[in-house]
């Protein structure tokens, strides 16, 4: 049943692509004889099905695919070339450097190759992208991991589907489940991980152009990353806003309401629900995100992706915004964001390709913290990173102890004695100034 459904979807997509291509070719007086391109796709699919039943090697599969392309004849090749050139000119969606003669970006597609590239090319503009995987070692669950991910532990909320808890339309009709879950999501009592401090170390060495994060836990801020270097693509718990009158509310106000497991109502209009400024499905990402991606990614000399499933758009598509000469390093438990079969067939530059001869995509599989420590060691920064983590943890422990002492002296009213660490440090700094 699943295979049938996939086949239907694939065929519908092929029909849609054919219609789009024919519309475009109409303006250039080009024709596709007998739908050669889609006959090729159908034949490829038949060959792929046969391959699954055989024990042929990967090399034999590639050879068979290549022979199939040649067997289609000159008309098909000519049509494909014309299509690619036309769409490249009009839509800029094809990989201009997809030929076999493209010079490799890295001498070897390994971590050592990336390290060599950084050193020999004097890399100064590194863009990092991060997902929930860099925060799991701090005790914050990610969303999609089996058994431990948040999406796999939402049965008690009686949702139509797991993602509904972060859908704006569902939130407007039934906000209670989100605010029950929000108590678990609040950035409280957590410390940044070695991955966060690796990003900070990049900044301190003058190598970080910008850090883009999907996370709402604010641990990058707590790790000491300057705000101008940070883009919180999916928003933050730092503030909230009324959905009706747009009145804004700060984190302490939001925390007080969320801890009581009540739906926060606006104190200005008395009607609207106050939602934290995190981005839900169905909402636009922050203006800062859209403004800076056009500036940062074309300038990037190295892209590092850490702990992300690369499933949520438009964040996932950012990997395609760097130039072709920019290496891309994935530090993750598994390979993600890979180019799909249709994109490969059409020659569209989309997604990561760890098996390509382009020599720029590298996967370092495993825990993000271990991967960051390994990369730091190969760059000669291993001890420096360890010392930074130890120093920062000691500082956070000291400031937390000082805050507890301060709260006891001030006799803070019951129910409000527990702050997020960011709140606490801010209030403690204000107290020290006075």
UniProtKB/TrEMBL annotation:
Binding-site residues for Zn(2+), renumbered to this chain: 242, 245, 266, 269
Keyword Zinc assigned: yes
Keyword Zinc among record annotations: yes
Gene Ontology CC terms, in alphabetical order: nucleus
GO molecular function: histone deacetylase activity, NAD-dependent; metal ion binding; NAD+ binding
Keywords recorded for this protein, A-Z: Metal-binding, NAD, Transferase, Zinc
The protein's required cofactors: Zn(2+)
Bias-annotated ranges (Low complexity): 55-67
Stretches assigned to the Deacetylase sirtuin-type domain: 104-382
Any matching Pfam family: SIR2
Top-level taxonomic group: Eukaryota
Active site, per annotation: 234 (proton acceptor)
Catalysed reaction equations from the record: N(6)-tetradecanoyl-L-lysyl-[protein] + NAD(+) + H2O = 2''-O-tetradecanoyl-ADP-D-ribose + nicotinamide + L-lysyl-[protein]; N(6)-hexadecanoyl-L-lysyl-[protein] + NAD(+) + H2O = 2''-O-hexadecanoyl-ADP-D-ribose + nicotinamide + L-lysyl-[protein]
Region described as Disordered: 47-78
InterPro entries: DHS-like_NAD/FAD-binding_dom (IPR029035), NAD-dep_sirtuin_deacylases (IPR050134), Sirtuin (IPR003000), Sirtuin_cat_small_dom_sf (IPR026591), Ssirtuin_cat_dom (IPR026590)
PANTHER family registered for this protein in UniProt: NAD-DEPENDENT PROTEIN DEACETYLASE SIRTUIN-2, NAD-DEPENDENT PROTEIN DEACYLASE SIRTUIN-5, MITOCHONDRIAL-RELATED
Protein name as it appears in the record: Deacetylase sirtuin-type domain-containing protein
Organism of derivation: Nasonia vitripennis
């Amino acid at each position: 049943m699943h295979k049938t459904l996939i086949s239907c979807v694939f065929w519908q997509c092929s029909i849609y692509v054919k219609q789009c291509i024919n519309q475009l070719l109409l303006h250039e007086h080009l024709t596709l004889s007998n739908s050669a391109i889609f006959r090729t796709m159908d034949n490829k699919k038949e060959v792929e099905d046969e391959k699954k039943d055989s024990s042929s090697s990967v090399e034999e599969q590639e050879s068979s695919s290549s022979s199939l392309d040649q067997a289609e004849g000159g008309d098909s090749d000519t049509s494909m070339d014309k299509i690619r050139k036309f769409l490249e000119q009009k839509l800029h969606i094809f990989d201009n450097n997809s030929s076999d003669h493209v010079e490799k970006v890295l001498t070897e597609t390994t971590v050592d190759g990336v390290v060599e590239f950084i050193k020999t090319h004097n890399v100064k503009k590194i863009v990092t992208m991060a997902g929930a995987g860099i925060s799991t070692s701090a005790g914050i669950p990610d969303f999609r991991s089996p058994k431990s991910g948040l999406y796999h532990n939402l049965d008690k909320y009686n949702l139509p589907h797991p993602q509904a808890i972060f859908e704006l339309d569902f939130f407007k009709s039934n906000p209670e489940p989100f605010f029950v879950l929000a108590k678990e999501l609040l950035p409280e009592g957590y410390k940044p991980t070695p991955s966060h401090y690796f990003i900070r170390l990049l900044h301190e060495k003058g190598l970080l152009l910008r850090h883009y994060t999907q996370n709402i836990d604010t641990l990058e801020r707590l790790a000491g990353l300057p705000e101008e270097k940070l883009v919180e693509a999916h928003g933050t718990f730092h503030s909230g806003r009324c959905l009706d009158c747009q009145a804004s509310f700060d984190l302490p106000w939001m925390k007080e309401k969320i801890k009581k497991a009540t739906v926060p109502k606006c104190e200005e209009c008395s009607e609207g629900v106050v939602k934290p400024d995190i981005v839900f499905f169905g909402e636009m990402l922050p203006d800062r995100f859209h403004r800076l991606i056009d500036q940062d990614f074309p300038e990037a000399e190295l892209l590092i992706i850490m702990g992300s499933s690369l499933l949520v758009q438009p964040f996932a598509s950012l990997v395609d915004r760097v130039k072709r000469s920019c290496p891309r390093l994935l530090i993750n438990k598994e390979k993600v964001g890979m180019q799909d079969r249709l994109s490969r067939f059409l020659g569209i530059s989309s997604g990561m390709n760890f098996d390509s001869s382009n020599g720029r995509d590298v996967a370092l599989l495993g825990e993000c913290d271990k991967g960051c420590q390994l990369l730091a060691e190969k760059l000669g920064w291993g001890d420096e990173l360890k010392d930074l983590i130890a120093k920062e943890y000691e500082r956070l422990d000291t400031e937390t102890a000082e805050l507890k002492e301060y709260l006891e002296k001030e006799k803070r009213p019951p129910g409000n004695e527990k702050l997020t660490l960011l709140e606490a440090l801010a209030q403690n700094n204000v107290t020290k100034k006075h």
